Amino acid sequence: MKILICLSNVPDTTTKAKFVNDNTAFDTTGVQWIINPWDELALTRAIELKTDAANTIENITVITVGGKDAEPTMRKALAIGADDAVRIDVEPKDAYFVAAQIAEYLKSNPFDLIFSGIESADYNGSAVGGMVAEFLNAPSVSAVSGLNIEGGQVKITRDIDGGQEEVSVEMPAVLTVQKGIAKEPMIAAMRGIMMARKKPLNVVAPVEVEALTEIVNFEMPQPKPACKMIEPENVKELVDLLQNEAKVI
Amino acid sequence: MSVLVFTENWDGKFKKMSFELVSYASKIAEMLNTQTVALSIGDVQEDELKKLGNYAADKIVSVNNDKLNNLDNQAYTSVIAEVATKEEATVIIIAQNNMGKALAPRLSVKLKAGLGAGVSKLPASVEPFTIFKKVYSGKAYSNVVIKSDIKILTLAQNSFEFEENAKSHAIENFEPSVGDVKTSVSNVQKQTGKILLNDAEIVISGGRGMKSGDQWAPIEELAEVLGAATACSRPVSDEGWRPHEEHTGQTGKIIAPNLYIAAGISGAIQHLAGISSSKCIVAINTDKDAPIFEAADYGIIGDASKVLPDFIEAVKEIK
Question: Which B residues, 161 through 200, put their C-beta within 8 Å of a C-beta on chain A?
């Protein structure tokens, strides 16, 4: 079985958002780049499953669409335990553009399972996984919070609105994963970091695709009015404010 | 031309969110001077379907097919696409929830329609079609132009003030062509007797300041008296004090209730990313410098385990 994990290279989640060029571009000054947290959980689960030989996972590949500056993040994925990496050499324009690039790669390089995180920490689109699946005319399962392999079949737990379902799916399939699939992201060990330098990181030329959306500019949230403080002895006053001022209870 | 809105039901009853979606779709239909078509998939009786007309749907298309009893992303996408084509939809509205996140991206590729994911208000203009959505997990917003002929928007939950606006409407039963279903569901566990975190109008959330997992009684009791759902911060679910389903924050659940009460939560930037769209935030924390107070509307500096019992009593007095 071959697993492909779609990785997004995103600013560290503690980064404060700042913009430049008349608020049309994200200010990357001093930003730490990380593997998108949900993609990292997908990678973690794939590696956990691979350590059990009975699951017969031959290979875990990570793929990203981005410039050379995404490579340190790819190396980090290799250090954690991916076998090889693919970078499609073009700046991402929108989710449709990214998914089309990945789908094109998959047409000549088939995989059995394709993972993507449920959203990216930058554009919060929740889109690439499902889009790749539709490009490939493959089934997809979204909001996956548990994954096991039994007798060559995948056993999936997915969250539905108000519950959970056990699902099985024909392969090849795309799984969009979220918290729960793995508990904690795996951390690279020193040996992994050494080995990562020798693992293949293949750079692939992009195909021509037209983006369907375009960001015009960014805005910062409206500042909130100051918090109204209430003395701990006066909880009654708080309840009164919630009832009569905020009108929420 | 039309605006198509995909509604969801639970055991044949529409969720509140479906009315929010239809109401939102009808406002866009007004901007485009066209009609609103609501699509329902599942076994929904006519009396229930009619309710969509109360939120300004001009036409209700009902699809009831055994192959669609469980969510198969591919099959559902193909049905929505078929109805969209039949109704000549130029805008399609879907919820930004688990089902919407499963379907909207597929539909985007199938119809070559640009996707605006997680919008929270009406488009600023329809020519060019400009939407407003949060990015960087709510730390900023962006104005995005959708350039394709067909546009798909997913609406963030509890973000749109919907109103009743009854219209005369037609109900049509439609039999789509459903292809092979490639996913099978073997076991369904629905949360019962509990208010669901994503649906809840009030959420009481506990953090590390609650000190341990066996200190949750006041949070549960306050939730009980307020008719609220319970939630927690990431350290709490990492410690196993509470199930991971309750984790709210950037990598957990992202919620937007009317009232969010944070007890013993310091308010790390990742936590705020999951709750900052709440209409009203109350913070109870011993540390006056905790970042949660910058996000909160009302705050109490104090020990949550001491404040909560008084809170419960005060709520009981008014209920």
Answer: 182-191, 196, 198-199
CATH of the domain at B233: 3.40.50.1220
Give the distance from residue A161's alpha carbon to the nearest chain B alpha carbon, in angstroms: 6
How many of the other CB atoms lie within 10 Å of CB of A91? Answer: 11
Fold of the CATH domain A2-218: Rossmann fold (3.40.50)
Number of domains chain B is built from? 2
Spatial CA neighbour of B25 closest among B165, B145, B138, B127: B165
Domain residue ranges in chain A: 2-218
Distance from CA of B19 to the nearest CA of A (A): 16
Count of CB atoms situated within 10 Å of the CB of B32: 17
pLDDT one-digit tens code per residue, B233-253: 999 999 999 988 899 998 888
Query: Do B95 and B151 belong together in one domain?
Result: yes
Q: Which residue of A has its CA nearest to B292?
A: A227
B16 and B150 inside one domain: yes
Cβ contacts of A224 on chain B, cutoff 8 Å: 294-295, 297
**8 Å CB contact between B48 and B14:** yes
Q: What is the pLDDT of residues B33-92, one digit of tens each?
A: 999 999 999 999 999 999 999 999 999 999 999 999 999 999 999 999 999 999 999 999
Quote the domain boundaries for residue B21: 2-173
Same domain? B290 vs B210: yes
Q: A200 to chain B, minimum CA–CA distance in Å?
A: 30
Q: Is residue B190 part of a domain?
A: no
Integer angstrom CA distances of residue A33 from A6, A11, A72, B47, B89: 16, 5, 8, 53, 40
Spell out which residues of chain A touch residue B72, defining contact as CB-CB under 8 Å.
Answer: 139
Q: What is residue B193's predicted lDDT score, i.e. its pLDDT?
A: 67
Mean predicted confidence (pLDDT) in B132-142 = 92
Q: Both B62 and B206 in a single domain?
A: no
State percent of chain B over pLDDT 70: 99
